[in-house]
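Dear H.,

Thanks for agreeing to be a second pair of eyes. The structure we're designing against is below in token form, covering all 252 positions.
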């Protein structure tokens, strides 16, 4: 299969690892993490990226070396604040995981995420790619934020602003690190786990080490797209929201 991937960078390490073990041809465009904080803007970006691939002249994309077509465009996004609504391709099928966010794909299923979430509300999640592409609220991050604010607003105002911006942490009691066996003792995963442990200690949170499962991501990348876990959108159809356990569907 020839597969194009447009993905949040939160999957960077995982996609790199799993595609290296596959016989399929992949071309990947990564978008920086955090864009889902403005879902409308992210939706516009995704539609623009897909349109460029459809047009055959996308500056990010190496098209299949045999001169053939892509079999599908995979979106490395979940529901993610509804950012995938109205996304479509005029040329290729789109494949999107049926999940609320990325944690389900790191844990291996929506059910595992749901079970843990309801038993451990107030959890800050982390894994290898998260540590590299998002922020971890540890001492190092706080010091960097303080210095940046101090340069702009002065020391007193910087402390007040920083304290106000961290009030979200009052709702958290736990930090969970998702470890994939596939990484073994690679330095990238070991360093990310250490930072998550330090974060928990710094914020007086509990720390939980979870064994992740790559099967959801592996099936996504290798074309095993059952309807329960994945939505396959035909060309010239748009993604719709279902507001039920299926999460997403498509319509003309």
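And this is the sequence the design step returned. I haven't edited it by hand at all.
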């Amino acid at each position: 299969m020839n597969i194009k991937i447009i993905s949040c960078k939160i999957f960077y390490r995982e996609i790199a690892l799993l595609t290296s073990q596959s016989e399929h041809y992949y071309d990947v465009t990564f978008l920086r993490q955090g864009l889902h904080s403005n879902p409308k803007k992210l939706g516009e970006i995704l539609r623009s990226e897909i349109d460029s691939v459809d047009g055959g002249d996308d500056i990010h994309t190496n098209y299949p070396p045999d001169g053939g077509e892509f079999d599908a465009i995979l979106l490395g996004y979940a529901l993610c604040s509804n950012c995938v609504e109205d996304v479509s391709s005029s040329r290729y099928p789109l494949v999107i995981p049926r999940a609320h966010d990325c944690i389900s794909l790191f844990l291996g299923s929506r059910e595992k995420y749901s079970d843990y979430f309801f038993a451990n509300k107030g959890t800050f999640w982390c894994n290898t790619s998260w540590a590299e592409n998002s922020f971890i609220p540890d001492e190092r991050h706080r010091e960097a934020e303080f210095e940046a604010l101090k340069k702009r607003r002065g020391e007193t105002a910087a402390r007040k602003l920083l304290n106000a911006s961290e009030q979200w942490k009052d709702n958290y009691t736990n930090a969970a690190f998702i470890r994939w066996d596939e990484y073994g003792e690679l330095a990238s995963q070991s360093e990310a786990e250490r930072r998550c442990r330090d974060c928990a200690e710094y914020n007086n949170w509990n720390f939980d080490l979870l064994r992740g499962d790559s099967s959801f991501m592996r099936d996504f990348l290798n074309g095993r797209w059952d309807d329960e876990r994945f939505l396959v959108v035909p060309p010239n159809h748009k993604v719709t929201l279902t507001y039920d356990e299926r999460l997403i569907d498509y319509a003309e």
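Two observations from my side: The longest strand covers residues 2-8. Residues 2-100+214-251 form one domain.

Warmly,
E.
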